[in-house]
Amino acid sequence: MNIFCGVNGSGKTSILEAIYLLGTGKSFRAHKIEKIVQQDKTHATVHGTLKTEAGAVLELAIQKEKGKPALIQIGGQGGETQGRLARSLPVLAITPESHALIEEGPEIRRRYLDWGVFHVEPAYVEHWQRYMRALKQRNALLKQPRNGSFDAMDLPWRATLALEGERLQGFRLAYLEKLIPLFAALAQELLGNMADVSIRLMKGWGEDSSLEESLNQSIERDIKYQSTQIGPHRADIFVEDIKGLVQARVSRGQQKLIIYALRLAQIRLLIEQREIYPVVLLDDLPAELDGDNLAKVLGLLEAFGCQVMVTAITPEPWVRMPDKGRNLFHVEQGHLTKVVS
Q: In angstroms, rounded to a whole number, what is the distance separating the alpha carbons of residues 112 and 136?
C-alpha cells in the first residue's frame, strides 16, 4: 500500500490520474482530454512498468492528444487498443465522486457492471463490440428519411441486436450471480445492519419477453425518437434489501459504505475467478470514511493482496495505524519524497 500525502493542489491526485489513464486510456476526473493535458502542451503521455506475478517486466505507454486516437504501446509494440491496455493493467478507482454510482443515472451503473464482466469473462468484449456496432448503425438508419425499404434495411440490425443483446444479458446475469453473495457479505461487514442486501438487474427491455420480441414491438417508438429505446444499453442495477430500494433511503455515509462494498466485491470476485489483482486507487480516502470504517476497508484491501494507491491531505491517520508494509510519500508540486518512519 502506497500513501501519497500533500496539501490540495500538490499533485497527489494527478499520480492516481496517471495510473488510471495508463490502465484505461481514460480520466476519472475529466471527460475531455484537454482537461488533463498540462497547460501550453499539446498532449499528455504516461509511461509505466509492470512486474507480473511471474516476475516478468512489461512496459506500457499511452499518449492522448485532442482530436486524435490514443497512441498505445504494450511491451514496446505500438498500435494497441484500450481493451488490451485494460487487460494488461486492471485498475479500479474509488473517488469522492463515486457517490454518482448510486445518485446519478444508469450509465454509471452500467459501466460498473461492464467493468466487472469485462475482466471476469474474456469473451464479453467481443459480443459487446458487435452489439454496439449494430446499435450505432441502426440509430443512424433511424435518423434517415423514411421510405418503403426501411423494414428490410432495419431487419439485419434488429437481428444482430437481439442475438448479441441476449448474450450480453446472459454474461451479466452469470456475473451478478457470483457477485451478489460477495457484495452481501461485505455490506454486512461494513454496515452491520443491512440484512439480505442484494443487487437487481433491470435488463433494459420487457421482463417477460425476448429482446427480439421487444425490438419488434418498439419500432414505432424508435422511429419517433430516432434511436433504439430498448436493449442492454438501457440496463440498470439497483441495490435492494427486504424493504426495497436502498438507494432511496440511506444516508450519505451509508451510501459511501455501499459503494465500497460494491467495489470490494468486484475485486474479490476478480481474484477468486481469474486470479487477477487489480491496482486500486483511493482518492482522499480519510476524508470519505471515519476511523473505524477506514480501518475496515484498509484491512480488507490488505487481505486481498492488491497494490493500493491512496491520497490524503495529512499522514496523521496512517502514523496511528499498525505498520503493515505501507509506504508513505510526501507530495509537493508534483514531486514525491518518501517519508522514513
A: 22
State the pTM of this model.
Answer: 0.91
Question: What's the rounded Cα separation, in Å, for the pair 72 and 80?
Answer: 5
Q: Helices 252-274 & 150-191, crossing angle to 10 degrees?
A: 110
The separation between the first and the last C-alpha atoms of the chain, rounded to the nearest angstrom, is: 15
Q: Identify whether the C-beta of residue 276 lies closer than 8 Å to the C-beta of residue 304.
A: no
On the CB side of 24, CA atoms within 13 Å amount to 21
User: Are the beta carbons of 29 and 36 closer than 8 angstroms?
Assistant: yes
What CA–CA distance (Å, rounded) separates 226 from 140? Answer: 8
H helix or E strand, kind and range, residue 328: strand 327-332
Distances (CA, A) of 98 to 83, 187, 260: 23, 16, 9
Q: For residue range 87-96, what is the model confidence (pLDDT) as tens digits?
A: 999 999 998 8
CB 175, CB 113: distance < 8 Å: yes
What integer pLDDT is reported at residue 111 of this predicted model? 94
CA torsion through residues 252, 253, 255, 256, sign:
positive
Residues 6+ apart with CB under 8 A from 123: 171
Higher pLDDT, 211 or 315: 211
- Local structure of 73: helix, strand or coil: strand
